[in-house]
Amino acid sequence: MAGNLSKWEVAQFKEAFALFDGKKDGTIDPDELKQVMASMGQECTNDEIKDMIDVADEFGTGRIDFPSFLKQYQHQDGEDPNELLDEAFHLVGNGNDIGPNEVSQFLKAIGQNIIDFEAQEILKICDADGDGKIGLEDFKKLW
């Protein structure tokens, strides 16, 4: 099932899948996907949601199970992991270094509310150079 993903990547995708699977039934249905997209600022029509699900729904169930979800994230030939990390960094920090507010906002956008103390603790763990924020190099070291 993991294809060319590392065990760490599979574990990370499992956590993401669990966040999307609000009903905890082992699948992501259209309502759950629409809610996740809205939480990230993307208002999607029902047709757009159906199209997204159809891409990953191998068995025509109208839902996405974990193996199908995982298949969407297999590494492609010639893929540059640094480019993907740059994109992820910019997504979380809106193009800037990541501080406790960005940590909280990003986690809230994916349905995880944390208190300020937790954001500070996350920042301490991820801030490799000790400058009080997560820069691009700190972010890449996490990978």
Explain the layout of strands and helices.
Blueprint: H1 7-20, E1 27-28, H2 30-39, H3 46-56, E2 64-65, H4 66-71, H5 81-93, H6 100-109, H7 116-126, H8 136-142
Antiparallel strand pairs: 1-2
Give the structure's gist in a few sentences:
The chain has 8 helices and 2 strands. The chain has helices spanning about 5-20, 30-40, 45-55, 65-70, 80-95, 100-110, 115-125, 135-140, and strands spanning about 25-30, 65.
What does this structure look like?
The protein is an all-alpha fold and about 140 residues long. Helix content is about 55%, strand content about 5%. The protein contains eight helices and two strands; from the N terminus they run αβααβααααα. The protein has a two-stranded antiparallel sheet. Helix 6 (about 100-110) packs across helix 7 (about 115-125). The mean pLDDT is about 85.
